Amino acid sequence: MDFKDRLLKKPWPYWMGGIILGFLNIFLLFGTGAAWKITTSFLYLGIGFLNKLGINTGSWYYFKTYGTGLGEGETYFNNGLMIMAIAMILGSLISVLLASEFRFKKIKDRKQLIFALLGGIIMGYGTRLSFGCNIGAYFSAIPSLSLHGWVFGIFMFVGAWIGSKILFRYML
Amino acid sequence: MAKHELDCMFEACPIPLLKALKKLNTMEIGEILIMRTDHNCSIVNVVEWAKKQGHYIDYIELGEGQWEIYIEKAK
Asked: Is the domain defined by B3-72 classed in CATH 3.30.110.40?
């Protein structure tokens, strides 16, 4: 296996990914003043479409209490987090094309579809209660020395442990 | 020698690994498990896990982004 294959096809070791992510996190925080979040961009997409349909999410208790976190001059469809999300998808596409592993994935069966939708709804709801996913509330929080990242981390492992037990026992 | 097939196409982590674990538990020593997957994490975590467990393992790329993993249960 030559160098090009090792670089593009083989996964990099965890420690190397960790170091690169750490530096990117510093550059992002330093350059933009904002932490990396993923699910909040989904939230913006969701409420953006709901507002287009004429549903006023601004009157909802959640947004009245906690706000939307949009910066000045940003809209639901045009904001820093949306650019990050699009960039991440493009980056993944480039890396999978470089590795020649691009494929369209199909939905396997109805069971997979239902569990994926259910899981997505539960995860989405959870991210709003905790103000972030494993990126926004964990990866971005701990280097900022925020206590909530540790609390999130502990319960994420508890949840993953319970989830894998349920998965193994009842769903496979 | 008995061969067992496991279809893990279109499935993401950790489903292929857990499916392999469950299937291997029901197999006899020396039997072969053939897994088909299109999830590139599987050729890392399933392979690492099987090696750690002491099973014999190998895999080939069938086409772009599609693999077949062979595990021989060793204990």
From this structure: yes
